[in-house]
Design brief:
This protein is α+β, with helices and mostly antiparallel strands. The protein has one domain: Pseudouridine synthase, CATH 3.30.2350.10. Strands 1, 2, 5, 6, 7, 8, 9, 10, 11, 12 and 13 form an 11-stranded mixed β-sheet that branches. Strands 3-4 form a two-stranded antiparallel ribbon. The chain is globular.
């Protein structure tokens, strides 16, 4: 986890995959407080306090005491979430006014959000996916409905062919829960590593042969207007090492095995000359020998 930008009103962080943004309400009710799993919401305040102590924060953030800075760890205000398996950039509000301003931008869909993903299947042309999303498509999972639900729009662009998979970019025009995962799966391009939306309604899970260690989805760009003043802010985070290693592995798989060298003696020939006869072994013949070998012989009289 990394703090990308810190101000009194908000904080922008780089979330690693495998860490939940917030505690699920069911876990909060079911588990005792000491057994709650780690979340970004719980782990981030101590990091903020440490950063502000190093920065020498004063005023509302802390009170200077004997040359040191004591910083209060105020709770964060959630304005967006990333799935536990998704990596990338997101923002938390730290004050009520910033929470209102940021939440209003997310509500109006004015926030710029771009994702990098690897999907199962081949996508050759950009695609715009629009549907109405409902919380229960009939089998307990979120999904699209033909006549009711909340409008959701995802813009999908292919970036690199990786054999049976494709590296794509996704831009959110709206921001519904699991929007990218649902739209890609319903388009026949489920995420590599997808374990939830990898089945049709009431159907069996579709096999994933990609070998992905997690859902291959990374929030690479986040842009919004500053909560106080409105100046545009933009934050970009490269894909983490596991994502890049997975893509590199797909590239190698798509390239196929390297051609094995010809085991015949001709393997010592120059590149592109495998069809030539093998070079003779031993010392090279002298110039006179070469001349005699190439000099045409005159016809001899036939013995009677």
């Amino acid at each position: 986890m990394r703090i990308l930008h810190l101000e009194p009103g908000f904080v922008v962080v780089d979330k690693p995959a495998g860490l939940a943004t917030v505690l699920h309400p069911e876990e909060r009710e079911r588990l005792p407080r000491g057994a709650w799993p780690d979340t970004l919401e719980r782990l981030l305040p101590p990091l903020i306090a440490r950063a502000e102590r190093q920065r020498g924060a004063q005023g509302r953030a802390g009170v200077k005491v004997q040359g040191a800075v004591r910083v209060r760890m105020t709770p964060l205000r959630v304005v967006q979430r990333l799935d536990i398996g998704t990596s990338g950039v997101l923002v938390f509000a730290r004050t009520r006014s910033a929470e209102r301003a940021l939440a209003n931008q997310f509500r109006r869909h004015s926030v710029q959000r771009r994702y990098l993903a690897v999907v199962q299947g081949v996508l050759r042309q950009p695609r715009r996916v629009e549907s109405l999303l409902v919380e229960n498509r009939g089998d307990g999972l979120r999904g699209s409905h033909p006549s009711r639900g909340r409008r959701a729009v995802t813009h999908v662009t292919p970036q690199e062919a990786l054999g049976d998979c494709t590296l794509i970019g996704c831009r959110l025009e709206t921001g519904r829960t699991h929007q990218i995962r649902i739209h890609l799966a319903e388009a026949g391009l489920p995420l590599c590593g997808e374990t939830l939306y990898n089945r049709p309604r009431f159907g069996e899970p579709v096999a994933d042969c990609s070998g992905a260690p997690r859902i291959m989805l990374h929030a690479g760009e986040l842009g919004f207007a500053h909560p106080d003043g409105g100046r545009p802010l933009s934050f970009n985070v490269p894909a983490p090492a596991d994502f890049q290693a997975f893509v590199a592995g797909l590239r190698r798989r798509a390239a196929g095995p390297q051609s094995a060298p010809d085991p015949s003696p001709a393997q010592d020939a120059e590149p592109g000359a495998w069809h030539r006869a093998p070079r003779p072994s031993g010392p090279a013949p002298s110039r006179d020998t070469r001349r005699r070998a190439t000099k045409p012989t005159r016809g001899r009289k036939r013995a009677k």
